[in-house]
User: Which sequence fits this backbone?
């Protein structure tokens, strides 16, 4: 009898897919855990393992108790779900493996986003925070540049939220201020620049909404030029 | 000799004639077309006749009581003793001082015509004009001797007293060093002439015409502004002077005129109102229009007003009742340092709270014809119209009024409005006082910018925030605010300057190298001694570019501004004057930089539509401005050994900072420095 496991491996904080990781699926046993199969994650972080019932079935066991070990391309351990075994799994099971950013090896981190970055920007984006809290410009602009390095769904979503920011970000003392545009507009310009680079005309409507009524601003001119580049 | 005020409150007084008994003086008020008379001992004034256009002089036939009036518009009018007016003649030419001569039962008027340069004789009985002399240089004053042999005339062009033989028309200049000479009057012996001198002398001199050559002696200086007519009494012990706003007496003892207590007083003055010609001002703290209530309210409010130079403003004035009952019509006006307020007849209606309806008044004269910040004072008076009354002081006030270069044109840029903030208006009107073209105005603004106290390098990207300071911080801002501020300052004076920003244009050139990620500036900017940044370490390339194995790289740790990425750079202004672009950098208080005209659709300016230009297109910009304003450009570059110095957008350092001035415009076909130009 054939069994099938499917799944997706992502960075926990950013939900960015992690391709090229080695996935080993096990059946938890009292004495010796059975290896159900190996595979490598695809570009979108997905994987599939098919195995036979005899791979795990013992005298009293009819259903597998599944956990995973995730290794990098050098077979070093990165992550394990051994502490969170899914008992009595069915014939077909889907697993979402969310690996914390800090557990990722350096080379994988480079193409991911530091969760502290995410946290900082999410603080900025929390309703009301923009008026209540003060932010250090070099930190939040650094965070936005960090996000802009690589296109990710999480980054795309963050940038869509950045361009919807309303009000003025309050700058903390010691901020290295931007020159041409206010901090809010500079962040939006960076976000719009990358949204248009990443997704072409996909978010034109959101961008136009974000700059509506700002015809005299540098932000407006830049946004229009970025969108123009996509036609 | 002392000078005393007999009447405080004339609407451009000019000619005067004193009765033989020395008790009554008739005078004309040019601005409101009235002839009045005053009892010189009591100061009681009474309207004799109105409805003239621009009366210049009055001459009374003291025997018949007939009154003759000359007008700027050309007419010589007679008012009979019973009050009937008739135009005797209209020779044109702007007749001024009159001299009545009686010969053989006939009455003749002699006068000089300012515009036509003639001396004419008018037969009052036949209404005919005889031209005796032509070619005089803007003659003003005139007297005729007792024998009617000679006329004595003041000529403004020649600054002279000229003697004219009436029978032949021959002229002799007796003296030609008078200051703005005006009307004349004989002294008691008919050997000397009193001559009034206007601005800047404002004095009375006596010219002894019996002496050869004539002698000139100052009787008194310090007369009220713009004196015109003089009228001595029979023994010269009192000489009455009709000046623009006052009728004065020169005497050893001056009478004390005691008016009644004021029945009302000036409560508020509104300069800017619907339909007003005032420039609208906003308060930067409240962001409310200054004219949301009267700019001046007695004891509680004193805000400035602004007009384009040479404007003649109207104002709305509210009075507050002091006595329980105020009835009848009052002639109300004001004297003041810029000419005061034109008098008008007003019947006031007071509300239950004691305040009157707003009354429209007009300044007597247009505001100065030059840019300036002026303190304009008004000393208000009111004279009850029924009968003879002494003008009563009803309040005094002083106002700051700015006069600007020309009307603002807010259609040139969507950031501009048809109003400006109060502070910039006060600053620029003071700084650019007397300047006479747009470039002079911009040059002074950039030079005086530090006097605003505002700083560069602090939060602020719009004019309003910059004026008050961001979150309690110092007033000022970053360049995105400063180029709006400079535009706003010029706009106050009706001068339009363009805005431009040049943004970084990082280009990957292969091998992981990027030119250029950032501009780096060492100067602190306006009112800052150093950049408002923590020190960072830079790797400077100061002497050789392109970088080769022997190129020295210097590590420096200091405060610098670093503006990086394609969404930052620097902002500047341009004035296009006589076809040339002049660059002003308000953030650093520098300029003007005269540049060669840029090519392209926005010529002579760089593009404003986010277009990248570089290389030789920026030659003049780079040589004249950038190399002095921006110290370094920073990029991810390899040094001579091939090691990559990678610029980090998170830490704002790591790249190589190359001195702008050592970078050529082009190497090969590669444009070394490029910027994305927008607005």
Assistant:
């Amino acid at each position: 009898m054939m069994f099938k496991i499917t799944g997706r491996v992502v960075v926990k904080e950013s939900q960015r897919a992690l391709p090229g990781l080695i996935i080993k699926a096990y059946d938890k046993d009292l004495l010796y855990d059975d290896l159900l199969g190996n595979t490598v994650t695809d570009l979108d972080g997905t994987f599939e393992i098919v195995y036979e019932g005899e791979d795990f079935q013992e005298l009293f066991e009819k259903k597998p108790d599944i956990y995973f070990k995730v290794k990098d391309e050098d077979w070093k351990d990165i992550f394990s779900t051994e502490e969170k075994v899914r008992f009595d799994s069915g014939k077909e099971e889907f697993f979402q493996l969310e690996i914390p950013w800090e557990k990722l090896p350096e080379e994988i981190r480079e193409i991911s986003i530091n969760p502290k970055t995410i946290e900082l920007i999410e603080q900025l984006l929390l309703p009301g925070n923009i008026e209540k809290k003060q932010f250090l410009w070099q930190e939040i602009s650094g965070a936005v540049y960090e996000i802009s390095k690589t296109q990710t769904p999480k980054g795309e979503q963050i940038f869509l939220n950045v361009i919807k920011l309303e009000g003025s970000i309050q700058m903390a003392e010691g901020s290295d201020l931007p020159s041409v545009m206010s901090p809010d507009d500079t962040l939006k310009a960076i976000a719009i620049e990358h949204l248009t680079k990443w997704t072409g005309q996909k978010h034109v409507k959101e961008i136009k909404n974000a700059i509506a009524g700002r015809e005299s601003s540098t932000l407006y001119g830049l946004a229009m030029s970025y969108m123009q580049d996509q036609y | 000799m002392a000078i005393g005020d007999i009447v405080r409150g004339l609407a451009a007084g000019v000619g005067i004639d004193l009765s033989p008994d020395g008790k009554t003086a008739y005078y004309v008020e040019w601005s409101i077309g009235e002839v009045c008379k005053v009892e010189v001992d009591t100061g009681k004034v009474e309207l004799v006749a109105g409805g003239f256009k621009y009366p210049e002089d009055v001459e009374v036939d003291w025997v018949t009581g007939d009154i003759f009036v000359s007008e700027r518009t050309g007419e010589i009018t007679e008012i009979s003793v019973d009050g009937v007016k008739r135009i005797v003649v209209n020779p044109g030419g702007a007749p001024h001082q009159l001299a009545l001569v009686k010969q053989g039962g006939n009455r003749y008027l002699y006068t000089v015509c300012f515009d036509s340069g003639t001396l004419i004789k008018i037969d009052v009985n036949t209404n005919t004009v005889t031209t005796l002399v032509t070619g005089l240089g803007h003659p003003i004053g005139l007297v005729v001797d007792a024998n009617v042999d000679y006329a004595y005339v003041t000529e403004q062009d020649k600054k002279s007293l000229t003697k004219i033989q009436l029978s032949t028309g021959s002229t002799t200049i007796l003296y030609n060093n008078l200051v703005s000479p005006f009307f004349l009057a004989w002294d008691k012996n008919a050997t000397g002439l009193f001559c009034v001198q206007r601005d800047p002398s404002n004095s009375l001199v006596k010219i002894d015409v019996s002496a050869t050559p004539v002698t000139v002696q100052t009787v008194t200086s310090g007369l009220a502004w713009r004196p015109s007519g003089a009228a001595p009494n029979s023994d010269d012990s009192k000489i009455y002077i009709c000046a623009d706003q006052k009728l004065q007496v020169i005497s050893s003892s001056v009478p004390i005129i005691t008016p009644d207590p004021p029945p009302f007083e000036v409560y508020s003055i509104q300069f800017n109102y619907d339909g007003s010609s005032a420039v609208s001002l906003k308060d930067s703290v409240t962001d409310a229009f200054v004219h949301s209530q009267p700019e001046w309210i007695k004891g509680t409010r004193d805000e400035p007003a602004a007009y384009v130079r040479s404007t003649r403003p109207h104002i709305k004035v509210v009075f507050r009742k002091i006595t329980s009952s105020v009835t009848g019509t009052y002639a109300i006006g004001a004297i003041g340092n810029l000419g005061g307020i034109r008098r008008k007849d007003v019947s006031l209606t007071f509300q239950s709270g004691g305040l009157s309806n707003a009354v429209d008044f007009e300044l007597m004269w247009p505001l100065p014809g030059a840019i300036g910040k002026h303190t304009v004072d008004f000393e208000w008076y009111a004279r009850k119209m029924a009968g003879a009354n002494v003008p009563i002081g009803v309040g005094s006030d002083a106002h700051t009024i700015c006069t600007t270069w020309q009307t603002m044109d807010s259609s040139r840029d969507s950031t501009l409005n048809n109003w400006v903030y109060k502070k910039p208006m006060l600053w620029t009107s003071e700084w650019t006082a007397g300047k006479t073209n747009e470039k002079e105005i911009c040059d002074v603004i950039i030079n005086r910018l530090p006097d605003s106290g505002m700083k560069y390098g602090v939060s602020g990207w719009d004019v309003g925030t910059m004026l008050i300071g961001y979150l309690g911080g110092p007033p000022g801002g970053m360049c995105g605010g400063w180029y709006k501020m400079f535009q706003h300052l010029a706009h106050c004076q009706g001068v339009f300057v363009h805005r431009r920003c040049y943004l970084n244009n990082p280009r990957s050139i292969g091998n992981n190298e990027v030119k250029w990620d950032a501009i780096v500036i060492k100067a602190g900017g306006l009112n800052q001694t150093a950049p408002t940044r923590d020190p960072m370490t830079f790797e400077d390339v100061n002497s050789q570019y392109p970088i080769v194995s022997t190129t020295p790289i210097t590590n420096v740790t200091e405060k610098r501004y670093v503006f990086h990425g394609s969404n930052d750079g620097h902002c500047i202004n341009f004035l296009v004057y006589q076809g040339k672009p002049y660059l002003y950098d308000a953030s650093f208080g520098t300029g003007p930089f005269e540049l060669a005209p840029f090519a392209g659709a926005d010529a002579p300016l760089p593009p404003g539509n986010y277009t990248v230009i570089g290389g030789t297109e920026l030659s003049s910009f780079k040589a004249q401005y950038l190399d002095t304003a921006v110290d370094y450009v920073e990029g991810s570059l390899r040094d001579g050994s091939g090691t990559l110095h990678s610029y980090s957008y998170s830490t704002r350092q790591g790249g190589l900072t190359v001195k702008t001035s050592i970078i050529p415009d082009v190497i090969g076909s590669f444009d070394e420095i490029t910027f994305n130009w927008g607005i």
User: Anything to note?
Assistant: The interface with chain A takes residues 413-415, 457-459, 461-462, 470-471, 478-480, 501, 503, 532-534, 561-563, 565-571, 608-610, 649-652, 678-679 of chain B (CB under 8 Å).
